[in-house]
């Protein structure tokens, strides 16, 4: 079969089996073909009349089998792009999501380019947020923590490959290992899905670490914990930025106000959904 035929046939199969939209399915098959052939997508597009020959055919077929069983593309190929950088991605970490780039942008808007700033990322996972911030703000000193040693290992690999001298990775359950350290900005994409949400049993999410997704009956347990402890770790006049679910803006704003934060507001993502709430620790 030619590459074009494989693409047409297997996109349809993926679309049906995993209930993907046709463009998504086609893109995913292209990604798997490129992985098996060791080529870039631009090459594939120009050479799609060539046959899918061994040994690539066999490795492609193994990759396709994994995808048809539901495993997310980012775990199969072991990487995902986020904020223009490539992150190693294993089942120990949440797969970086495009909507989380909003959190990075909002953080960068509050970090000066020309002076030092102490930044903390809570629950860093792959390190996507912390590394994106550290690379964009070389003068900032970024600390990133995670309670999962396996996740920290992935973050360490990413930090080493992407060369981020201004990042410190630490094993910590939220603020647990940070002592009395204070910061000029705290950012987090914590777990925030309701424990009983059927979303957790479907699609790619089933393969991701539950500890990075679910957070009690209303999904806000970890946000409550973070917001309660954050004021002691924020210098006066500093911001806390939290990602949350599209229906948790009001809940998150209430929590931030209860903890004494001012200038509390929620920012919508590109899909128009409430996604990040921010609060200021008054000076
Ligand atoms: N946005 C993710 C999802 O809906 C959840 C990420 C998180 O809990 N931090 O799958």
From TrEMBL:
<feature type="binding site">
    <location>
        <position position="174"/>
    </location>
    <ligand>
        <name>S-adenosyl-L-methionine</name>
    </ligand>
</feature>
<dbReference type="InterPro" id="IPR004556">
    <property type="entry name" value="HemK-like"/>
</dbReference>
<feature type="domain" description="Methyltransferase small">
    <location>
        <begin position="107"/>
        <end position="196"/>
    </location>
</feature>
<dbReference type="InterPro" id="IPR050320">
    <property type="entry name" value="N5-glutamine_MTase"/>
</dbReference>
<dbReference type="Pfam" id="PF17827">
    <property type="entry name" value="PrmC_N"/>
</dbReference>
<feature type="binding site">
    <location>
        <position position="146"/>
    </location>
    <ligand>
        <name>S-adenosyl-L-methionine</name>
    </ligand>
</feature>
<dbReference type="GO" id="GO:0032259">
    <property type="term" value="P:methylation"/>
</dbReference>
<dbReference type="GO" id="GO:0102559">
    <property type="term" value="F:peptide chain release factor N(5)-glutamine methyltransferase activity"/>
</dbReference>
<dbReference type="InterPro" id="IPR019874">
    <property type="entry name" value="RF_methyltr_PrmC"/>
</dbReference>
<keyword id="KW-0949">S-adenosyl-L-methionine</keyword>
<feature type="binding site">
    <location>
        <begin position="123"/>
        <end position="127"/>
    </location>
    <ligand>
        <name>S-adenosyl-L-methionine</name>
    </ligand>
</feature>
<comment type="function">
    <text>Methylates the class 1 translation termination release factors RF1/PrfA and RF2/PrfB on the glutamine residue of the universally conserved GGQ motif.</text>
</comment>
<dbReference type="InterPro" id="IPR040758">
    <property type="entry name" value="PrmC_N"/>
</dbReference>
<keyword id="KW-0489">Methyltransferase</keyword>
<feature type="binding site">
    <location>
        <position position="189"/>
    </location>
    <ligand>
        <name>S-adenosyl-L-methionine</name>
    </ligand>
</feature>
<dbReference type="GO" id="GO:0003676">
    <property type="term" value="F:nucleic acid binding"/>
</dbReference>
<protein>
    <recommendedName>
        <fullName>Release factor glutamine methyltransferase</fullName>
        <ecNumber>2.1.1.297</ecNumber>
    </recommendedName>
</protein>
<comment type="similarity">
    <text>Belongs to the protein N5-glutamine methyltransferase family. PrmC subfamily.</text>
</comment>
<dbReference type="InterPro" id="IPR029063">
    <property type="entry name" value="SAM-dependent_MTases_sf"/>
</dbReference>
<feature type="domain" description="Release factor glutamine methyltransferase N-terminal">
    <location>
        <begin position="23"/>
        <end position="78"/>
    </location>
</feature>
<keyword id="KW-0808">Transferase</keyword>
<feature type="binding site">
    <location>
        <begin position="189"/>
        <end position="192"/>
    </location>
    <ligand>
        <name>substrate</name>
    </ligand>
</feature>
<dbReference type="InterPro" id="IPR002052">
    <property type="entry name" value="DNA_methylase_N6_adenine_CS"/>
</dbReference>
<dbReference type="InterPro" id="IPR007848">
    <property type="entry name" value="Small_mtfrase_dom"/>
</dbReference>
<dbReference type="Pfam" id="PF05175">
    <property type="entry name" value="MTS"/>
</dbReference>
